[in-house]
Task: inverse folding
């Protein structure tokens, strides 16, 4: 995959994504077998691409998060 | 004799009239499960003795002339993330089987039983509900009763299979991003994902708290509504359960739809599906004579935000299990959860802030329309074991993308009835009938109109 960055400045290049995964594995005390890595990296790339869509969207600073959600 | 096509209201009526007994219904149901379940793998647990005792109690009430509930003697089963006293709530996992047995039934089980329904078992599901396929590496896949080598959809795959195979007339499932609507579509049954907060989730194993819903499956709109009405009510044990008074929908469903403003949702929902998907959708909208079109702005971004929140909350929920027992997960779920653990907080918070923005825009749509119609799945049920599919010329992973049309709707908690539609002799598809928050009855009325006209139909598979 060619390195690329969206306006959101989420780094989508493979090395940046792997660094984030490595940090999560280390800080979470996870034991990851080598054969799991390809699947984890593919899923994280999909998540990062989704997040890039979200991060590039302009929102007012005053907008509250909906983490306690009501319909 | 009750056969597999009998609905809940028919069974309750025949027991109340003395035409049959609850015990006879339960024995017939247990025999049918024993005969057919090995083909469809819908059940993971069968609570036979509990069911027999409950049936005898119903028959005793009738003999004594006591008033019977609206679901008296009706067999039902629940996705195995819903607590059943005496069983560990496995939630489709290997790991949870080591939990102590549940000490209390989930609230929705208690409410259905209070109406006279009889629990007969627990149903297969995708591990920890992080799934749209109905496959399960530990228990084997649930199989689509209409084509056994095809997916049921998930994660409530056993619920869809049990209904379509005629094993029970009522089942419960959960829906975080589409896990009721997808199997309802693939298996050809009715499914209701109520408004977020409408039905208590107390006593169910969570996945993503701010997206989790529970709801019923059935083969008719009346049965779906009977079960829904029986399960409404406040519950302090679920912090997001509504404090609104129950709003009975059953008296509403025969009202017709002439006063409802219906719209087709365009834009995002008119892409990303195959020809069969749009043929089913078109069949519904033509039958209803819908000409108005509306658009849910930023639906793709809403799906993306739901995707991020799901991955992050799911990873946080399972963090200790990932650390201690990673090898015991279904690999397909484990890899997604580990990936989710790498999500920065900034992404999640932005997704939740976007959710607020999106919610306000979606609610504005309902100033002009009452019900929105959208496809449920982008295609019919793929074959078991398939890992990719192609939409609009793009090949993509199957498992995360089956919910492409369901995620933008549940993201803001709207009530949806998934209605089954058949466009030929092959597998069914589904259409989402979407209403404003707390207006389940609007969606149920449209579903009922489609059922009455023969456009929506739940069939029992020949097995």
Result:
């Amino acid at each position: 995959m060619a390195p690329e960055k969206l306006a959101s400045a989420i780094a989508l290049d493979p090395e940046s994504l792997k660094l984030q995964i490595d940090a999560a594995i280390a800080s979470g005390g996870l034991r990851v077998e080598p054969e799991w890595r390809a699947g984890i990296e593919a899923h994280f790339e999909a998540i990062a691409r989704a997040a890039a869509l979200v991060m590039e969207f302009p929102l007012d600073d005053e907008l509250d998060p909906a983490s306690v959600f009501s319909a | 004799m009750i056969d597999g096509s009998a609905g809940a209201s028919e069974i309750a009526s025949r027991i109340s009239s003395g035409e049959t007994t609850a015990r006879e219904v339960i024995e017939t149901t247990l025999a049918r499960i024993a005969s057919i379940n090995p083909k469809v793998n819908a059940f993971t647990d069968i609570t036979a003795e509990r069911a027999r005792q409950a049936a005898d109690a119903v028959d005793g009430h009738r003999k004594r002339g006591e008033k019977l509930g609206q679901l008296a003697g009706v067999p039902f089963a629940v996705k195995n993330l819903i607590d059943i006293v005496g069983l560990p709530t496995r939630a489709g996992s290997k790991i949870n089987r080591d939990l102590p047995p549940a000490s209390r039934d989930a609230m929705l089980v208690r409410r259905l039983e209070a109406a006279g329904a009889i629990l007969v078992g627990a149903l297969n599901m995708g591990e920890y509900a992080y799934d749209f396929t109905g496959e399960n590496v530990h228990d084997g896949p649930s199989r689509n009763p209409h084509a056994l080598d095809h997916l049921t959809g998930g994660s409530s795959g056993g619920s869809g299979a049990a209904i379509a195979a005629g094993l029970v007339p009522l089942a419960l499932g959960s829906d975080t991003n589409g896990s009721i609507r997808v199997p309802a579509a693939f298996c050809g049954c009715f499914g209701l994902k109520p408004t977020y907060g409408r039905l208590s989730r107390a006593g169910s194993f969570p996945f993503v708290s701010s997206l989790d819903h529970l709801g019923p499956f059935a083969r008719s709109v009346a049965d779906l509504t009977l079960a829904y009405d029986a399960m409404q009510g406040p519950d302090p044990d679920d912090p997001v359960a509504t404090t609104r008074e129950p709003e009975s929908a059953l008296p509403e469903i025969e009202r017709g739809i002439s006063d409802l403003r219906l719209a087709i949702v365009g834009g995002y929902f008119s892409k990303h599906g195959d020809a069969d998907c749009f043929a089913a959708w078109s069949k519904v909208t033509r039958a209803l004579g819908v000409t108005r079109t509306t658009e849910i702005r930023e639906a793709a971004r809403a799906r993306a935000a739901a995707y991020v929140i799901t991955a992050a909350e799911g990873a946080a929920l399972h963090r200790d299990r990932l650390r201690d027992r990673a090898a015991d997960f279904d690999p397909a779920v484990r890899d997604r959860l580990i990936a989710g653990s790498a999500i920065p907080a900034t992404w999640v918070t932005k997704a939740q802030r976007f959710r607020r923005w999106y919610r306000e825009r979606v609610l504005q749509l309902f100033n002009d329309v009452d019900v929105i119609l959208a496809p449920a799945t982008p295609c019919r049920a793929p074959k078991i074991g398939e890992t990719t599919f192609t939409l609009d010329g793009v090949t993509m992973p199957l498992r995360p993308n089956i919910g492409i049309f369901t995620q933008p709707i549940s993201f803001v908690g709207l009530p949806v009835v998934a209605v089954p539609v058949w466009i030929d002799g092959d597998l069914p598809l589904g259409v989402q009938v979407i209403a404003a928050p707390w207006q389940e009855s609007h969606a149920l009325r449209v579903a009922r109109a489609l059922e009455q006209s023969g456009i929506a139909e739940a069939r029992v598979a020949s097995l």
In short: Chain B touches chain A through 51 residues (CB under 8 Å). Chain B has one domain: 8-452. Chain B has a mean pLDDT of 97. The CA atoms of residues 15 and 21 of chain B lie 5 Å apart.
